[in-house]
Amino acid sequence: KEFGGSGYTPRVSYHYNPDVSRYHYGVRHPMKPFRLMLTDHLVISYKLYEQMDLYKPRKATNEELLEFHSDDYIKFLESVTPDNVNKFASSLKKFNIGDDCPVFDGMFDYCQLYAGASLDASRKLINGMSDIAINWSGGLHHAKKYEPSGFCYVNDIVLSILNLLRVHPRVLYIDIDLHHGDGVQEAFYLTDRVMTVSFHKYNGEFFPGTGNYDETGVGKGKHFALNVPLQDGIDDESYIRLFKSIIEPVITTFRPTAIIQQCGADSLGCDRLGTFNLNIRAHGECVKFVKSFGIPMLVVGGGGYTPRNVSRLWCYETSVMTGQQLNSKLPESLPFRNFFQPDYSLHPNLGDRIDNKNSKKYLENLKNTLLENLRYLRG
Ligand code: ZLS
Ligand code: CA
Ligand code: ZN
To answer: Which CATH superfamily is domain 12-374 in?
Structure first.
C-alpha cells in the first residue's frame, strides 16, 4: 500500500458539505466560513474532482462529539442561540463565550458539519477507501474538552484522531497553522500513541500563549509532543528546510501508521492576522513532503484570514494531493473571479512584507534542541 515512491497514485477523497460555508461569526470577525465556498469553486473550476472521490458528509451526532467533549458543554452548545443567550449569562463565562467565540446563528449546526466532515474523512481512511482524505472545513485545533477557544468550538482533529486510534497503533499530528495547536497537544499530552508537532509564532504573548520548545509531554507522553516556536517574518526557504529536517526524523523514528496534517493558511504572507512570509508553493511543499512518505493521511484546514489567499492555497494543496499540475492563470470560468484581481494568479507574491526575525543561528539551535528530543523515542 505504498504510494510515496514511484508510480502508484494514492486514492484521494474530498469531504465537503457546502452548507458549512453559509455561517457567519459576526460582521467584524476575522473567521469567514465563506472562504470554503471560494476554495470549492477553485477546486471545481480546475477540475480537480476528476482525480478524487467526492463526499458530502453528514453532520456529526451528539454521541460522536461526546467522544471528546463533556456532556454539559455539548448540551450548552446545542441549546444556546443569539435569542436566548441572555438566559445563559452564568454559563457564558464558564464556557469562555465572548468576542473570539461568539454565539451566532446556527453555531451548533456549523460545529456538527465541520466535525462530521473530519469524521467522514477518518472513516474512509480506516476502511481503506481512501489514502488521502481532505476536509478544508476542519482543523479547529484550539477547542477544549469543556470549552471553545480561538474561533474553535468542537475539536474535529481530536475526534478524528480518537477514531483513527481504534485501528491505528500510532498517529502523527502535524500543525502548520500560524497558531500553536494547543487543544490537540493537550488532549494527547499523556500518551505515546499520538505524537503532536506544531510550528507556530511564539513570543509568550501571542495567542494562545503556549507552545515553547520545552513543552514535550508528560508521563508516558514525555517526548511525544514537539513544538517549533518561530519569530515574525520566516521565509519560504528557512521554513521548508526546518520543516523537512524535523519531520523526516519524526516520521522515521515514531513510525506513524496514520498522519493528520492541519494546514492553517494564516502562516502565509499577507494574512490579516499573520506575520510570516510564506508563499503558497512553500506551504504546499510541506504537505507534498509528508505525502511522499506514503502513509495514510487526513488533511484539514484551520486558520487563514485573507480569504482570497486561503482559497488559492487549499486549491493548490488539493492539486498537490491529486498530483495534477495547475495553470497559474485562474480559469476564466471561475465564479467570484474578481476576488483575485489584479493578478488572477494561483501564485501571488506574498513573501516580502515582513522582516525575517529568525536568524540562521536561532533556527540552527532550535533544530538541534528539537532533534535531541527525538533520541528518546528510539528503542
Ligand atoms: O488558530 O488574541 C486573542 C485573545 C484576545 C484578543 C482578542 N479579543 C477579541 C479577545 C481576547 C486575547 N485571540 C486571538 C484568537 C486567534 C484564534 C486563531 C484560530 C486559529 O487560526 C485556528 C482557526 C485573536 N486574534 C485576533 C482576534 N482574536 C480577533 C481579531 C478581530 C476581532 C473582531 C471580532 C473579534 C472582536 C473584534 C476579534 C478577534
Ligand atoms: Ca501551528
Ligand atoms: Zn491560526
So the answer is: Histone deacetylase domain (3.40.800.20)
